[in-house]
Amino acid sequence: MLGTVEILAEDGTIQLAGKHARLLAALVVADGRACGVDELVEAVWKGPPPVSARKLLQIYVSQLRKILPPEIEVTTQPGAYAIGLSPETLDATRFERLLGESIDAREAGNPALALSLAERALSLWRSRAYGDLAYDEFAHAESERLTVARWNCIRRSFRPTSGQTHSLEGGRRIDLSRSQRV
Fold this sequence. Notes:
Strand content: 5-15%
Shape: elongated
Strand order of the largest sheet: 3-5-4
Helix content: 40-55%
Number of domains: 2
Number of helices: 6
């Protein structure tokens, strides 16, 4: 979820079509809570849904079930769907775990470990959380929450000391002692 909504499978990345990506994102945002059919219809269709939206949603759920790896299950409940997955399945959960470990390491007086853990956490990000769906109503709050956590990770982890520099992806270096704090 830390970028475009996609599935990382053993044999590569599975890019999801628009409606399937929206459906998966809406289920993930619900965090295990059963989402009513009307709620999912609203998330899957940006504008007014077609008359056949409820039936199409059933088809999309069926197709999504076939795409998802076995450890991720979409369950049917009366008038609703929910997703079941282990927490470590999501990149967002791994990011938050690594961020927490980084904070713990910093508080324990181990800035090198804190920095290493923060770099691992930040490396999980591919683009804005939920990608193109970040500004859609159903995903916006979660995208913003994760973005704030990302910036807090950067702010906490890369606090400058005099003359300190840090390598960025692509070999660029930044002098943290002279840059503005985030």
